[in-house]
Amino acid sequence: MLGNAMRTSLRAAGRVAVVKGRQQAVQQVAAQAKRMAAPAAAQQVRGLKTLNFGGSEEVVYERSDYPQAKYQEMFKDDTLCMLGYGTQGRGQALNLRDNGMPVIVGVRKSGGSWDKAIADGWVPDENLFDIDTALSKGTVIMYLLSDAGQKMAWDQIKPHLTKGKTLYVSHGFSIVFENDTGVVPPSDIDVVLCAPKGSGTTVRNLFLEGRGINGSIAVHQDVSGKAKERVCALGIAAGCGYLYETTFQKETYSDLVGERGVLMGMIQGAFKAQYDVLRSKGHSPSESFNETVEEATQSLYPLIGAHGCDYMFAACSTTAQRGALDWYPKFEKALKPVFEDLYNEVENGNECRRSLDINSKPDYKESLEKELAEIQGSEMWRAGETVRKLRPENN
Ligand SMILES: NC(=O)c1ccc[n+]([C@@H]2O[C@H](COP(=O)([O-])OP(=O)(O)OC[C@H]3O[C@@H](n4cnc5c(N)ncnc54)[C@H](OP(=O)(O)O)[C@@H]3O)[C@@H](O)[C@H]2O)c1
C-alpha cells in the first residue's frame, strides 16, 4: 500500500506531468500555427475546389477552407464528446484539444483507455468522464469505439442521441451493416463521417509536424442542413489536411477491401510467398529478406510514394524494367479474382459478420496478439529484425 506522503508526491508529479504536457501541446500548437500561416493564406485565395483526378473531376476541401477561427466559431456552443480512446480516438481528440475545440473524452473506467487518457493530460471530471456522463454533456457524439464495441455499446448510446445532436463516426461500418450491428441512428439528428486515411498515430504525428492527413467525408443524415459544412470543419480540426467526398457505403467497402488487400493482407501474403520460394531454392534468410522486403520498403516503395510506379520502374535497370513489365500482368491476372472475391465478401456482409463475431469475444485481444506473434516469430520477420539493425541509421 502507498503511504500518504507517497500518494501526495505521486499526485504532485502527475500534476507536473499534466502541466508539462499542456505546455508542450501549447508550444506545439503555436509552432504549428506559425508553420501553417503562410501556406494557408496563399491557399485561401486559390479558390480551386474541383481537381482533376486522372480525368475525373472531384471536389476537395482543404485546411484553408476552414481556418482555426472559423471552426472554433462554428462549434463554440457545442461540446464534442469523443467516445473511445483507441489509436484513432486519441489522435483526433488530442488534435481537437490542441486546436482549441471544446472536446471531452468519454471512456469506461475499467478498460485501458481511462489511464491512457489521464497520461495524455485529460482530467477526470473536467474533460474526462465515464461514457454516460460524457454523453449527457456532448452535443456532437464522436463514436470512436472499436467497430465491434460500437455494436455492443449502442443501447447505451442511443438514448442520448436526442434531437439537435450530431453523430460523428470515422468508419461507416456500424451504420452500413446496420442489419448486423443494430446501429440505426434516430432520424432527427445529423449523422456524418470523417475517416482519416491512416492510423490514429499518423493522424497525430502529421498534425504535430504541421501537416494534415487525407480524409474522407460523408453525410448519412442532414437534418440541420449544415451537416456537410460541419463535418468538413470537424475533420480539419481533428487533423485532416484534405477531405475527399464519399458516401458511407463507399468508404466502408473501400476501407475493408484496402486493409484486407494491398495495404495489409495482400502485402504480407506476397512477401511471404516470394520469401518462401527463395528459401526453398536455397537462398539464405538475409538474401531472401533483402530481395523481398528490405529493398521494397527502403528503396523502391518510397519512390512510388513520391512520384508513382512508372518513376520507380524508370529508376531501375533496364533488365529490371523488362522483367517487371512482363510479369506485372501475370500477377494482375492471378490477383484480380482474389480481389473480386474479397469485394464480394465485403459487400455481402460476410467480412463484417466475421469481424464482429471474432472481435466481440472476451479474449479477442489475446487471440489477435497470438496471431500477430506468429507473424513476428516467423523466420522472415526474425531475419528482418537483424537486417533492420544493420541499417545505417541504426548503427
Ligand atoms: N485505427 C485506425 O487506423 C482507424 C483509421 C480510420 C478509422 N478508424 C475507425 O475509428 C474507430 C475507432 O478505431 P480505433 O482503431 O481507435 O479502435 P480501437 O483502438 O480498437 O479502440 C478501442 C476503443 O474502444 C473502446 N471499447 C471497445 N469496446 C468497448 C465497449 N464494449 N464498451 C466501451 N468501450 C469499448 C476501448 O476502450 P477500453 O480501453 O476501455 O477497452 C477503446 O477506447 C473505428 O470505427 C475504426 O474503424 C480507425
Automatic annotation (TrEMBL):
Q: What are the binding positions for Mg(2+) 2 in this chain?
A: D255, E291, E295
Cross-referenced InterPro entries: 6-PGluconate_DH-like_C_sf, 6PGD_dom2, KARI, KARI_C, KARI_N, NAD(P)-bd_dom_sf
> Where does this protein act, in terms of pathway?
Amino-acid biosynthesis; L-valine biosynthesis; L-valine from pyruvate: step 2/4; Amino-acid biosynthesis; L-isoleucine biosynthesis; L-isoleucine from 2-oxobutanoate: step 2/4
**Annotated KARI C-terminal knotted domain residues:** 247-394
Q: What GO MF annotations does this protein's record show?
A: isomerase activity; ketol-acid reductoisomerase activity; metal ion binding
Q: Which GO terms describe its cellular component?
A: intracellular organelle lumen; mitochondrion
GO aspect biological process, one term: L-valine biosynthetic process
Q: Predominant location of this chain?
A: mitochondrion
Keyword Isomerase among UniProt keywords: yes
Which cofactors does this protein require?
Mg(2+)
| Entries under Pfam families matching the protein | KARI_C, KARI_N
Locate the residues binding Mg(2+) 1.
D255, E259
Annotated residues for binding of substrate: S317
Its keywords, alphabetically, are: Amino-acid biosynthesis, Branched-chain amino acid biosynthesis, Isomerase, Magnesium, Metal-binding, Mitochondrion, NADP, Oxidoreductase, Transit peptide
Q: Where is the protein found, in the record's own terms?
A: Mitochondrion
Q: What is the protein name stated in its UniProt record?
A: Acetohydroxy-acid reductoisomerase
